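User: Sequence for Hydroxyacylglutathione hydrolase below. Tokens please.
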Amino acid sequence: MTGYKENQLIHIDPIEAFQDNYIWLIHNDQNSIIVDPGDAGPVISALERKNLNLVAILITHHHADHIGGVMALQEKYPHIKIFAPQKDKYDFVNISLKNGDEINIPELQINYKIIEIPGHTRGHIAYYDKKNLFCGDTLFACGCGKIFDGTHEQMYNSLKKISALPKDTKIYCAHEYTKKNITFALSLDPDDTNLKLRKALVSNMKNTIPSSLEEELKTNPFLKCTSLEAFKRLRDLKDQY
Ligand SMILES: [Zn+2]
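Assistant: Structure tokens for Hydroxyacylglutathione hydrolase:
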């Protein structure tokens, strides 16, 4: 078995759902993990098309467009493990996770570290495997999530936490908002060279995710805020945009 872990190929594919959601499918040639299945239909289609067994579901937060498909998937694949934030309440049986926890998915030989990133919701968590971050509705490409049952201060601190990860971390968020977010960012800073480059780069792309933390640090206005007050002002501006 020596070296197997390094040699096995892990793919991360987007499954599109609703208007602009991404449900992430992490898989090798047999087994798979699903992140935030808001809808079971497109997940089951993808699993059957690729002939994959589902072994685990990772939930980042409690919004319906992230958990709506869980019950149907649990019914179809009764042996799956479902992981979810400890600070939320769910109708389905789950393994609840808090900051610093580590989970292992043996079928894919993957470990995830749990990072609490509240703000969009108070219980929001991310799953981090040292290369990829599944961050739900917290950090978006060139933007960040709205504040629902969390606070601006929580979101500000969560973005700081993510900013401290290695720069080559791939950012897998849960919505395709990139072009709209770049348009907003350019409305604030029309001459920003990095933003103009990014706009050109994504102009012909349908799927712009994942991005990298390095790219976000260069172009994401929410990561450039140096005070909570500035962050609040920016979030309010975006909410009204
Ligand atoms: Zn959400």
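Residues 112 and 129 are 5 Å apart (CA to CA).
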